[in-house]
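Predict fold of Sorting nexin-33; 335 aa.
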Amino acid sequence: QTKFKGIKSYISYKLTPTHAGSPVYRRYKHFDWLYNRLLHKFTVISVPHLPEKQATGRFEEDFIEKRKRRLILWMDHMTSHPVLSQYEGFQHFLSCLDDKQWKMGKRRAEKDEMVGASFLLTFQIPTEHQDLQDVEDRVDTFKAFSKKMDDSVLQLSTVASELVRKHVGGFRKEFQKLGSAFQAISHAFQMDPPFSSEALNSAISHTGRTYEAVGEMFAEQPKNDLFQMLDTLSLYQGLLSNFPDIIHLQKGAFAKVKESQRMSDEGRMAQDEADGIRRRCRVVGFALQAEMNHFHQRRELDFKHMMQNYLRQQILFYQRVGQQLEKTLRMYDSL
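Predicted 3D structure, encoded as tokens:
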């Protein structure tokens, strides 16, 4: 889109919420505003990171497409979250069509006082007994799990990125070199006409062109599988990087409970005050457990889809390569 009579151009994204039906258009700066509101309000929720904003060359086609794919993933994660999806600021982002109303809603979100620790006061938690030691043990288990998952996601992302580079570079180059070498054989065979077989020369030349085409197929293939894998891995790298701070918050709450109980036992703090600290810790504990549960549910679904898409696209790709090779093989059958 453009403004100032075409002097300045910018990219906007069309969003059509199913519950409203009317599309809205949002620029990256609007996503960025929403992201910062989410961080400010939800300190015990792992808010997905936005895809990077590239300062230079931002209108390059590949970058635009990559950011679009990752914003779609970001929106998918946001709408699946039982708390983030219901946030008034997010609903405003999804549905507001009027500029004046947008500014009013934006100011309202920025003046929201129920943020951070105050947001926890809005929680309604189960009345069931919660053993804080059990919660702490579960948090420790999740901490170890998230660290291991973060390491493995980084490893897979590194390997997949290197494979992309090979597809668009090395693999294409090697298949094209092979194709060119076959073409050279065909040209050499044509140099002594009395002993030249036109059908054989044509078949070998066709094989050369086939391998050159296969090289191009390899170069294009990451768009069908590896890019989607890297998008999902990038989303989870962001989500996992949030958990150390969230877990640190919970650990701080545990420490306060233990300290307050010790002071109460020593008569240096009223039991009512110590009980209040324990209640607030229970809120943080339930909130973190809910977030961990949601993370695992989404992880299973997202990685299932990621692996299914990768394998299906790989099968289709090698079937297409096989079809090309079978086609050139048949040219030799009638010789």
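The domain at 2-113 is CATH 3.30.1520.10 (PX Domain).
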